[in-house]
Amino acid sequence: MLSIKEVEENPDPALVSISLPTKDMDHEVVFAALATVCEDNISIMSGPSDLPHGAVAKRLVTCLRQIQEHGRALEPVVGGFTAIFHHYDFDAQTPGNGYRTLIKVLQSCLLHIIHKGRYIASNYNSAFFRAEHNASEMEAYCSALCQLRALLHLAQRLLNDNDYGQLYSLQDGELSRKFVQEYISMHKACFYGRCLGFQFSPTLRPFLQTVVISMVSYGETYGKQQSGLGMAALSLLTSGKYVINPELRGAEFERITQNLDMQFWKSFWNLTESGLITGFNRIASSPVHVNFTLTLPPVTLRLPLASDPSLTATVSPPIAHWGPGPVHMRLISCELREGQDSEELLSFSRTNPPPISVSHLPWVQKQPRSPWLLIHFHGGGFVAQTSKSHENYLRIWSKELNVPVLSVDYSLSPEAPFPRALEECFYAYCWALNNCHLLGSTAERVCLAGDSAGGNLCITVSMKAMSSGIRVPDGIMAAYPATLLTTDASPSRLLTLIDPLLPLGVLAKCLNAYAGADCQTVQPAVGSGGLSSLGRDTAVLLSDLTQGASNWIQSFLDPMRTSGGARPQSSVQRPQSNEPRRTPTHTPAPNCGSDMDYPEGFEPLRSECLAFIRPTSCPIIRNPFVSPLLAPNNLLKGLPPVHIVASALDALLDDSVMFAKKLRDMGQPVSLTVVEDLPHGFLSLSQLAKETEVASAICVEQMRKIFQGENPTPALCKRPKLAETKQSTDPSG
Q1: The pTM is what?
Q2: What is the pLDDT of residue 461?
């Protein structure tokens, strides 16, 4: 256990938060260290009036006293949570749920404050002390601490109002309504500026900074009558100010995430389809001999019944919304296998000339068909990305497992809402079973794998296979799956108020788009690319530029700095007259329409940039094939073994925990692995950090278990040796 001295003197508290599990950190030690640091700094800066940095000293004293107040109020709250949050875990070997996560995030914030406070106390009288910068850093974390205090109050309400062991307020629409109302008005920009990504692994923070700067720069030029180099040039000109001014960056990102339309999100996240990024991914990832797209014509399929193979079931092509249409897929294989160069398979290719043949690769030795087949459904909130976006880790999977990978490019919302994507994925699954010989597999064992929205589709495709009476896959590997497509409140969903990759406003837009709320469906144009009207050179320059600019300018400004967010109200500066809408304006004014009954004298910071959140009230959202967590037992009974890999810092963590509990309580084989310190979507970041590589390797091992026929059993209920993860498998399998 850490001593107070160790917490105070550790040179990088972020590393402490990674190497030390939250449950092993005595919160009393952390709060004692916080109190000591605050007292030391206040004592130093409350001395003679001729001390240097007089104006900054007053700001810091005010800020530190606010931190002291928050610390005194939070310590008993944290003590209450740590006494009971283990009751909400999947099991004793898998410590992970939204309550634990909130405490972990709070402790990470406190450790950053302690570290910054120790630095200020030691260097305040130095000639090179950057007073303004350090005061802004401390004020940013003070704002973040205030908002985290509000989140813990909301979590207390969930704890008091939910049934024992339940993480969601599925029956309490009023509590979920209050949660959404708080998101609408609470100030969130402080989590997107100086404090950006403080809760995640330090190696990922430069990436998160690049994403945020890219998004706000792209958002400023989005919708203007520019294309190609023109838009790229505008993005270049605007990105610099967001690098230099974290407060401005945070305020603009808050505005974008709350109020820009779905088409902005689709076009921005489809930047991963740009030539530069996909080219880099192909260079950095494993080389493969087979990688091309297929288009399946809409013809009726016949498959043998699982109960009696002498009988067949008819599977119609996708028809929802605009009638029968083709299904697009990508085949990736590290080895050229029998069938993959056949004329029959190449006839489905969308490229001309055909992408692969033995004559093109005379040095490649053709391998026999694999007994395994991996079918993949990509993530992207049902609204963005394709198999190309996820190609980097699919190549790795194909090599590590030595298996052909078929990734389905299902139609995206809002143009193609539910059930179009499910129909296309199910049709592709059925076609693959019938035509596995063309894919280089005998399909003796078939695994479905997907992340986020793709994880949802893995589960619902399996449910549809059971309902149709055809063969179900031999197992499912679902990474951070969305199993409840509502805005119902849960402790981990509270993270959507601070998460730069999955804000509630964005989550709600994606869910409503998939549900078809107020959307007009249109048949997509044939051959339309993921970048739509965005020029390729725009994507190339934008993605390349912001990374270099961000790293260079930030290191120039302050090589010793930590990540941070916006200032509290006491130090907000008014904007220049030509940029009125990007001010991080927020006030601690009471009675901002809140009915959350905060403690007397406390109110979270409020924003003038109010979010517009459409509640997920469409009845389709509660369809069991949309939200499998709500599915009756008879629709889940008979699912194959489900291996879920979730992240402790993901807003959808409670989706995974509750779904795993539901399957376990039914006697279904299920395992849950919770990795630390990574955001939602960590598979797409697998080559950026050691932690993401470890998490991706865990996904591979879970798929290997499926292919090798290892169902969750008591013998597998062991924690892994890797310090970055905590894993368990269900003994009921």
Answers
A1: 0.84
A2: 98
